[in-house]
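ok so for the tutorial part 2 we go from a plain amino acid sequence to predicted structure tokens. step 1 is just haveing the sequence, like this:
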Amino acid sequence: MQFTNENRITLSPVAIAQFDPLKNDSLSILLLDKDAVFQPFPPPSDRDSLPSPPTAPAFANCCNDRFLFYLTNCYYCEILVKTLGINEEVNQHDVMTQPTLVMMGCSLGLLATSLFGSSVLAQTPKPQTATLRVYPSLDVAQNKCPKEVVVNIQPSPYREGGYTRTGRVQLTAIADAVQFETSDRFSVTWRARLKPQYSSCVATAGVLKSETSGLSESLLRMRFIKGNAYFIVDSTGLSDANGYTLEILRQNIEAGNPVWRWGGTD
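step 2 — the prediction. this is what the tokens look like for a chain of 266 residues:
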């Protein structure tokens, strides 16, 4: 499958009866499930690719007499391959290559931990929240509005050079029929029809408090007017630590709620 952005993926048909979601790699993303066969995948991360701290038995299984013999007798390995054929070559692979890869993974993991701290080997960061306070208009009588709107934010595991965060706002409690109003790479607005109890609301909303470090108050905003709620994610005029503009990397509607991902460099 070739995408318009020049990325491509290889598709492999698999019978549903043979599919085991527990064997999915942690980087898996559920792109489409028209028949609602699968449970939602957890946010993608590299946790399955991170090295595990070595144990004494695991190290002993790698660094043993056979491994040291092959390591110090390279030409002997070549002679065995030429005289005994492929079986000894496979044996050399099992004795040398696999233990070497295991020990390299352990060494790189320990080195990364010593250089950058334990956060390098951390699992997916804990979810965070931001609370938008609703400020009703003084000029509207019987102006019944929600008091606040909560945004769930999921930071991605740290990757050197940049960061991404995924946001989701729970609009289904106060509105329905969510759809895109406007969108580009720096700003996106969703429009939703307010439920009857809030249909007369005329107000705006902005970030009151946030568990996300460095979250600008101007990034997330809302408007309530003419029976509609407008949720706005706008990175205009916002920059990261290196002076580059923040960008919205993904925008969607999932389970009736706006979902987006934004990021920058560090």
